[in-house]
Amino acid sequence: MVRVKNRYLVANILYPAATSVVKDGKSAPSIMQFHAPTPDSLHTGQLIRLIRDGIENLFGDYGMGMVNRTLKVIYWSPPTSTAIIRCPREHYQMVWAALTFVTKLPHPNHTPVVIKVVRVSGTIRKAEEEVIRRAKGIIRRAKEAEAGKKDTMMNSVVQAVEKRDEPRETVLADVDMDEDDESESA
User: Fold this and answer.
1) What's the rounded Cα separation, in Å, for the pair 186 and 183?
2) Sheet of strand 82-88: strand arrangement
């Protein structure tokens, strides 16, 4: 018996024209406006219909026949606007293209969006790990923006030093030496 092989696409729905969310007189950080939650009216059935319509528009009946067999939304999270989509291994590029050409959500929303495929994986486990990693990153960046931290590079160096249990001056000196080497070679 032949095993059907799939690919898993991790896709984020981004809202480039999002308005500022105001709560208690404060506006949300810009990272949270761009990665806004998806309206509850968009569900997995509409997302699949959106993908199928895009494939049909781009590739016609041939594309629908090749992709329709295993196309399924495995994971959908409206709060993070993230989806994991299963599709055939041989034709995942068709699904990716259909997602790329989506410009707005279906009826009744009609909100302008950009769908970005952030990972293509052969296993669902790796796709799930990517979703978790990205969600943690968005939360971390939002907290940093909320706290007003501007120098994230320095913070990451300090965290790396603390993990390695080395004196801070040694690592910072290494970073300075690397910058000097790059400027001399340029």
Assistant:
1) 5
2) 72-77, 82-88, 6-14, 114-121
pLDDT tens, residue by residue, 3-57:
889 999 999 998 887 554 445 555 555 555 567 788 888 889 999 999 999 999 9
Query: What is the reported pTM?
Result: 0.70
- Write a three-state SS string for 15-58: CCCCCCCEECCEECCHHHHHCCCCCCCCCHHHHHHHHHHHHHHH
Q: What is the pLDDT of residues 118-135, one digit of tens each?
A: 999 999 999 999 999 988
Pairing of strands 114-121, 6-14: antiparallel
Alpha-carbon distances of 63 from 45, 67, 105, 112, 176, rounded to whole Å: 19, 6, 22, 25, 53
Tokens of 166: 């080395």
